[in-house]
Design brief:
Helix content is 15%, strand content 31%. About 11% of the residues have low confidence. The chain has three helices and 14 strands. It has 209 residues and is α+β, with helices and mostly antiparallel strands. The chain has a domain of 139 residues: Glucose Permease (Domain IIA) (Distorted Sandwich), CATH 2.70.70. The chain binds zinc ion. Zinc ion (ZN) binds next to loops.
């Protein structure tokens, strides 16, 4: 065998483990289609501050705190920059993971809201919901990437609240304005957790690798 040929073989062997690709092209045929890499979540970051949520904290209602305002268990977390009052108004809000916007609009209870559906596998989904926004930068049907700015922190409908982000993680497909209450009666905590996830715990358990 010629020297050139040996060099070629060594090169191919060296490249193989790097690319993980066979030099013979696989035409696919009947193989199932790979999921869209943007659509599938590759991990979850925090919705405000840096990817770790640094500089921000849940200083308002925590997950499952009793909310006297709504007479129900609070199904999300109220995020603020501690000590800043309304100074966090207008701060960017980020998509916590790759996903598809399934609702972007306004309602009288929550103000401007964005709801994003995330595929954690091709068949398993969770939803993140961002409420009381001042601005919305993502529309229904849009696919967003993890850490993509989707809007800004606001004060809710008609500046009803001090500026904060009301943030929810859901394990069931609920309307954007869903609240754990039926005809004015609060759901039990055990029922709330059938539909909602602890946002910070979920994100911490699903950080990007
Ligand atoms: Zn809240």
């Amino acid at each position: 065998m010629s020297r050139k040929c040996w060099i070629l073989i060594i090169l191919v062997l060296a490249v193989l483990p790097i690319t993980g690709c066979s030099p013979i092209t696989d035409q696919g045929g009947g193989l199932p289609q790979k999921p869209d890499p943007i659509w599938l979540a590759d991990g979850f970051d925090f919705p405000v501050g840096d990817a770790h949520g640094r500089g921000w904290a849940v200083t308002g209602y925590r997950f499952l705190d009793w909310s006297r305002y709504s007479n129900s268990y609070h199904p999300g977390e109220d995020w603020n920059i501690p000590g800043l009052g309304n100074g966090d108004h207008g701060e960017p809000v980020y998509a916590v993971a790759n996903g598809e916007v399934v609702f972007s609009g306004w309602n009288t209870a929550l103000g401007h809201v964005i709801l994003i559906k995330h595929a954690i596998s091709p068949h398993d989904f969770v939803w993140s919901q961002y409420a009381h926004l001042d601005q919305r930068w993502a529309a229904k049907g849009e696919r967003v990437a993890r850490r993509q700015p989707i809007g800004t922190v606001g004060r809710g409908p008609n500046n009803k609240f001090a500026a904060h982000l009301h943030f929810e993680m859901r394990k069931e497909d609920l309307p954007a304005n869903a609240w754990p209450r039926t005809n004015g009666t609060a759901w039990a905590k055990s029922k709330v957790t059938d539909y909602w996830l602890h946002p910070t715990a979920f994100i911490n358990q699903n950080r990007p690798h």
